[in-house]
Design a protein that fits this description.
The structure holds two protein chains of two kinds.
Chain A: E1 2-11, E2 21-29, E3 33-37, H1 44-51, E4 59-64, E5 67-68, H2 73-77, E6 80-83, H3 95-106, H4 113-123, H5 139-151, E7 157-161, H6 169-184, E8 188-193, H7 196-202, E9 205-210, E10 213-218, H8 220-227, E11 233-238, H9 245-250, E12 255-261, E13 264-269, H10 273-285, E14 290-296, H11 300-311
Parallel strand pairs in A: 3-8, 3-9, 6-7, 7-8
Antiparallel strand pairs in A: 1-2, 1-4, 4-5, 9-10, 11-13, 11-14, 12-13
Helix pairs in contact in A: 3-4
Chain B: H1 4-24, E1 40-46, E2 55-60, E3 71-76, E4 90-95, E5 101-104, H2 107-110, E6 115-120, E7 126-131, E8 147-150, E9 152-154, E10 162-167, E11 180-186, E12 209-212, E13 218-225, E14 228-236, E15 239-247, H3 258-292, H4 294-299, H5 305-340, H6 360-390
Antiparallel strand pairs in B: 1-2, 1-8, 2-5, 3-4, 3-6, 6-7, 9-10, 10-13, 11-12, 11-14, 14-15
Helix pairs in contact in B: 1-3, 3-5, 5-6
The chains are: A alpha/beta, B alpha+beta.
Chain lengths: ~300, ~400
Amino acid sequence: MNEIETEKLTKVYRGKKTPALIDLTLSVPRGEIFGFLGPNGAGKTTTIRILMTLLRPTTGSARVAGLDVLKNPMEAMRHVGFMPENPGFYSGLSGKQHLRYYASLYGLDRSRFDGHLNEVLQRVGLADAGIRKVKTYSLGMKRRLALAGALLSDPELLILDEPSLGLDPEGMAFVRSLLKELQQDGRTVFLSSHLLGEIEKVCTRVGILHRGKLLRVDAPREISKAFGGRQAVLEVETRNMVPAVLDELRALQGVAQVEVKDNTLRVFGALDDDTVIEVNRKLVAKGVSILSSRRVEPDLEAAFLALTEAKT
Amino acid sequence: MGSPRLLIIAGLLALAVLAGTYALLPSSGGFSGPPAQIPYGFNYYGGLNSSKPGLAILVASPTGNHLQGVEVRLVNITGPILTGEGNYPVLETHLTDSSGWAQFGDLQNLYPDSRLGVILASRQGIIASVLTGSRNQPGSLVTDGGVLAIGTVQLSGASGGTIISLGFADQAGQPQSGADVYYWRLDLGAQLPSPLDAAAPPDGWNQHRVGATDASGYFIHSDPLGPGQYIIRASKGAFNYITVTTVYSSTSSLNSGPDSVLAFSGLFFIPLILPLMALILSYDAIAREKTEGSLDMLLSKPVTRTGVAFGKLAGAFGSMVFPVVAVLLEVLRADDRAMRSDEAKLGHIGAGKVSGVPLAPLIGRLRGVARQVIVDGEDGAGAGLAGEVAG
């Protein structure tokens, strides 16, 4: 059974000529962690807002947990936990009061409220902060509270819009482990991100959305391949670049391309840790003084463009 | 909707001003004050066949108390009478005597071809008028040789009504006892008999007699008249007077003064401004949730949009209606206690029983209103008025 099904979803915002979403047909079977990947403005949030009944599609239909979100929104929402991109709260209420309020909206059994609320707070790492007012929360804590809100009703399906946005590395690791837990429980997760690195680590399947169009749905490994040499970049800032080293670097395994500009070296390719160490070692051996060295996420916008162009 | 909160503060200020005005304005009658203090005049039209037409005014309360020392002014009506509040030139001023009467004599000679009016110093508006001049002048309410004061009283206040209350005096202004009083009711819109002077009900006047004037020449029929056209007749010996009064509804319009303030808040503020403020409040509540992002959290839960919108509206309404209802309920409770006690006098309910002194007059008035509303709503205006008059 598919937890999420969309049929030719199209959304044109009022006053805009280009549609935000074009004929999106997608299905996410139960038990999958589906990653929705795309640069900012690709239509990820639009899709999610339609699925969450926050937005009406211009045409097309969508089903969540087998229920049509247009015809039966209230029943459909009973089966989903949702974390919006920018969750907002009532600043004067505590985290626990929020959860209590949400729980009442689900009509959850009052007698098991408190124990359950504490459990959920514990799970997202807010056990101690639950009684504090939300206005004292950091951004990361607010996102954890939103996650608690999504987990509250113990839903079969979770829809998370950019779950690791604004989180510190520790928070990101926490989200990843939570997703794995959920998967082990057999739950379905639909998450969006604009970071390939984040998505490929946790997702069982990835859909690439660009300018409102679903370009491709595939396993993360296949998606990585599709990005080819642009998969990752190692950027090394040096004081004195020695051109002779370039050929040696190109010969390294996984390196697809090497560029030098203003004493800054860029190495493209499937760069695993060993390759990165080897690149640095070679540079030092040739007498290059390294000021900094860092791995950067690939420029997705450019990658997507390349992908679209390749198709046409 | 730049700043709804500012608007709400303005609304509350307006409410405070209303309450303040109401509490501070001198009572000019109506349900807010004791009925015994409502002066009312009855006009007397001297017959023009007589050589010296005059005007006699009896000032009495709707409960039948004759009021002494009330300043009565004879004015020259220079503008349209309907405006009622013009600055008419005052011709004469008299104080009512111990039986409540004030007389103005020889008007034909003193003020020929004039439209004269009577104003009570304590009230605004013309309470009686007379034309001097040719007999057939339109609008002159005169009868052959009649020497009579007659009138129907519009009780003020929400529970007010029209009752028959009249004084009967001779041409010299001497009150006459034992004059028979009759009334004959016709439906609204029914053709009135003509000439009126000679009109008589099919079953004869005797079937319609309601009483006679007392020693001070006064008669009161305190049951309020329902909607209809009333031909009212008083007669004694050769003197016979007939007048018509039309009652459109069992309640009358509100007076000026504190009552109008209360009427404003009752008729406009609560039904009009309150929902408006509630709308603005709930609009603000939803808009704020939207900008702060908590609306998404809310709407992604199993709730309907209409449910959320109505919930906000109900909340806004509730927050404002609650104090109003609380006050009204307290008023009713206190009023109920008062009614069970022997002192069930409308005018005395309230102030004396509320300990918070500055608020007492206001609460006393609110109690009056609350009771009117309830009595009117359940038993019709009749019961409300009866209670008031009996008190």
